[in-house]
Structures are given as structure tokens and as C-alpha cells.
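hey can u check if this looks right to u? its 299 residues, i copy pasted from the old doc so theres a chance i mangled smth
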Amino acid sequence: MQNISLPPMKSLLAFEAAVKRGNLTLAAADLHVTPAAVSQQVRRLEQHIGFELFQRSKSGVQITVLGRQFNDYVNSALATLRSAQQINPAIENERQVIVTALPSFASKWLMPKVLAWMDRHPQMQIAVQAQHEPEHFSQSSAHMCISFGIDHYTSDNAIELFTDQVTLVLNPHLLASLPDPTHLNQLATLPMIDVDWGQAGAFLPSWAEWLAAAGWVPCALTHGPKFNLSSMAIDAAVSGKGILLGQRSLIQAELDAGSLIAPFDMSLALKKSYYLVYPQATLKHQSAMAFIDWLAGQK
């Protein structure tokens, strides 16, 4: 007889995370439990519904055909529940706008804009959430996100904001310590601060590319400290720890304050643009759309 009772929510969430991550260990990290706990919940779900969701081997797990079909229903059901729990009094819901962005971009580029918007619209509530993971609108209450590229958002609305550029910057006192601050050969002997974006780093101009474009190809690079957040790399450059290929959108405050200086006019463009992305549901949210229209005009 077919089981008509609903499976436990913990089992559904474990299955959702396992499918999303394709790995029980990563799924466990997302849920803040052990891999064994995720495996147990998935097996409990399989026993409840009567068929296997994953094929298991020494190399890991792989979702089955039935598992993929079941996942479609689980995603839809969980998305409905997540949307339902966001229900608020209409006026409060209309006043709140939720936007997600990459951490460094959120703090360095987005926050000054958000603060300016709050000054203009004190009655509105802006919530900024910084994250590295792509935004899954069907599983969150976010009205929009700012994304580097739009590979993950083919079915959503997207507005291209700008293509950023990098240029060489450093602390002015470090520049003044060189015998000839205008000579690129001397600058290139300083530690080169690196920003490690993982796979996305392929779209960020490298030191070798920038130096070659500037007309100097070194025999060897002087490697400096490495950071996985652009904001940390900027802080290191401000502290005089080396030279940095800084993104124009992220270093403008430091350039204006004089804590960083760009001794050369030459810049290289990133190989992807930044986009403002939002789902169809946001079109019905007047405050969110007003913020989108305003933010799209900011550079």
C-alpha cells in the first residue's frame, strides 16, 4: 500500500542539501550536522517513499532517475513553504527590500549606495546579505542579488551594471620610499598582493597580464600575501604590504581618501560584468522595483 503520510522535514532538507551539493560532506556542512546524520536522514527518506534516491559507491553518491524526479517535487514544495513563512502584514512586507551580493562588493560598492538610499527613503527597510553562493530565489526571500556574471541566472531578469577594471595601486608612503616612484621596474620589485577567487579568478586580470599590457614582462614575479576576499587585499595594500591590482569599484573610497594611490593610468577590464538580477516575483514588489531602478543608474 502506498505511503500517504508525509516524510520528516529533516529528511527532506537533508535530501535537498545532498542534491544541491552532490556530496554528503558538503551537505552536512551546510546543515551544520555530520555526514553520517545526512546519510541517515536520506536513508530514512528512501525507506519512507519506497525507492532509492542515490546510488552509493566508494567515490560518493549519484542521484538516480527517480531521485531527480522526486527532487523536482521536493524543490517545489519547499519553495512554497519558504515563501509562505515570509508572509507579513502587507505594509511591512512592502517596505522591506532584501538584496544579496558578494561580501567585498557588498561592503565596498553596495553599502554606500544603500546608505544613500536609506537617507532618501527612511521609511524603507533595506536588508543586505553578503554571501559567496549563487542566490536561489526559489529557496530564499531575497528580492534581488548582485552577481559577477549571470551564468546561474538564465531564467531570471538581469540588468548589466558595469564591467569593472583593475589598476595598480599602493600606499602613497610605500610609493614615496622608492628611488624613482615613476619607474615601473622599481614598483614591480615590491610584493604583489594576490586575490584568490578560486574558479572565478580566471575572469580577473592577473599580474602577468597587467604588467605585459603596461609594457614590462618580468623574469619572475615578487609574490606577496594572498587573500580570498578583495576587501582584505585592499586593507593589506592600505597598510603598505605591497602593490595591488585593485578593482576601481571597490577602491574608490581609498583613492578619494588618499590612503591608496594609482601611479599609472593603465587599467584592464575584468572578463565578466556585474549584474543586478531579480526573479519574476520581485516585479510585484513596488519598493524593490524602485530600488532596482535607482541602483541600476548608480556607477
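The domain at 92-162+273-295 is CATH 3.40.190.10 (D-Maltodextrin-Binding Protein; domain 2).
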